[in-house]
Amino acid sequence: MPEKSALMSAADIAQAVSGRKITALDATEAALSRIAVHDKVLNSFTDVTADRARAKAKAIDAAIAAGQPVGPLAGVPFAVKNLFDVQGLSTRAGSKINRDLPPSPRDATLIERMEAAGAVLVGALNMGEYAYDFTGENVHDGPSRNPHDPTRMAGGSSGGSGSAVGGALVPIALGSDTNGSIRVPSSFCGIFGLKPTYGRLSRARSFPFVASLDHLGPFARNVKDLALAYDAMQGPDADDAGCAGRSLEPTLPLLTHDIGGLRIAIAGGYFQKNVFPEAVEAVARVAKALGATKTIELPEVARARAAAYIITTTEGASLHLDRLRKRANDFDPAVRDRLIAGAMVPAPYVDKAQKFRRWYRAKVLELFKSVDVILAPATPCTAPKLGQVNFVLDGAELPVRANIGIHTQPISFIGLPVVAVPVPLEPMPIGVQLIAAPWREDIALRVAYALEQMGVAAAPPPRGL
Amino acid sequence: MADHLDDYINAVAGAMALPVEDAWRPAVRANLEVSLRLARLVDEFPLPDETESAAIYSA
Q: Which residue, among A178, A126, A137, A208, has the nearest Cα to A383 in the 3D structure?
């Protein structure tokens, strides 16, 4: 029973708990049991908050017994990347240094909203140090491992989020995405991920990386669960200066709406270069299922990626300047050396990158007058081996780390909403980005749902456990 | 050019009180070379003088 309920979707768990077919405590124990067994392999959790989870689950069961409303995520176990503040834990953000911080006095806004909807936090998840990572590897905690092949990367920086959901330890996890850190682990681990519009979800009480580009969002094993979590977390929040003042725009009721009238195009040029055959195959399958034949060219994409890189490395350096001075030897050396270099980029280049961002945004928004969704690879390859430094593509040896995020960076650069959908290729899955205009998460989710119904997008059972 | 970049790293590290140990220097330099190459790619793109930064402030 516990093992079975751990593999249920979030929607099914909530329905079963609300209908008194299982208790919230059953669902929680099931998740804790799977974590205890399988996280020895996956290494996706840094903290398991078992006592807190059991107390919350019992409170939900008591509320149900008393006839009180418990919310659309009643009894659903979830976990968060360890850059979300969790009351009573130090927010380590994948680092050694932050372990010296005092325990957080209050949960992050998104945790509060998930729990207000009845969800049960079961722990915090492994990640790349300070989120400056695409691999899911971590020198302090060891790597998050891929649930389909534990010798491979989970992707980063939200590696534990990808690994935990891909391994079906929890049905929902939360992560962050500055340049691709939700979409890359979704692709490598074969799950659904939503990077919402910049400013849509509150980042309050999460550890930042690049304020200009940071987004938070959910991972799930199906689109309905993704929409359930996303809808529960929406809404303005005065505690995050970057959070837009938009009211709730629920997506769950819209998932089944027909997508026949949507104009869908395939990103050309830049997005069709430097890709492995698996990425080409995945985009082709999605395009065929959607009847998409038109190709659309985004302008100056390589420059957009370059500008995102500059803003990232300089804002990241600014954030960590004092830690670089005082505790340089406590960083992952690779992260430290990137941040020190970032501190040395002349300021006019940063200003230019921000001005280019404004130009690029206007040009890309023009494109959305003629299309509703743009398809692009989420990653150029399936999950590389842990520790892999280079791969060979078209006869050229290329660095893995520098190339994993080449297709995600130019999109998050201007804050467009994206659903990464998994295409279950053998032996490893790979993701495709469904990119929509700002504030149209509903459209990307509708298309993702249609692909899931057609059997083109699906989260495969964990093959490596 | 190589010497100039090393001089630049030394000068900025000194001005900002950033430690750069000798063992780290090749990696810091390699990262800075990538950043400057990408920054130049952005810089060489002509933008109108009136272009507003994306990082605008609202009072």
A: A137
Cα–Cα dist B40/B44, whole Å: 6
- Tell me the per-residue pLDDT of A339-356, one tens digit each, with 9 for 90 and over: 999 999 999 999 999 999
**Cβ–Cβ gap B54/A309 under 8 Å:** no
Q: Which of A207, A240, A273 is the last residue of a domain?
A: A240
First to last CA, chain A: 19
DSSP string, A237-290: -TT-TTS--------GGGTTS--TT--EEEE-GGGGSS--HHHHHHHHHHHHHH
Is A181 among the residues known to form the active site?
Answer: yes
Amino acid at A162: G
Nearest residue to A356 via CA among A437, A302, A436: A302
Domain that holds residue A177: 2-240
Test the A interface: residue of B35, B41, B47, B50 with most A CBs within 10 Å: B35
Q: Which CATH number covers residue A384?
A: 3.90.1300.10
DSSP code at position A293: -
Reported pTM: 0.97
Q: What is the mean pLDDT of each run of 10 residues along chain B (59 residues)?
A: 86 97 96 96 97 83
Number of CB atoms found within 10 A of residue A77's CB? 32
Which DSSP symbol is given to A131? G
Element (H, E) at A397: strand A396-399
Whether residue A459 is contained in a domain is answered as: no
Residues from chain B that touch A389, judged by Cβ atoms under 8 A, are none
Residues A300 and A175 placed together within one structural domain of the fold? no
Cβ atoms within 10 Å, residue A397 = 9
Q: At residue A30, what is the residue type?
A: A
- The shortest CB-CB distance from B53 to any of A309, A336, A354 is to A354
Looking at the fold, whether A273 and A234 belong to one and the same domain comes out as no
Structure tokens at B40: 């130049």
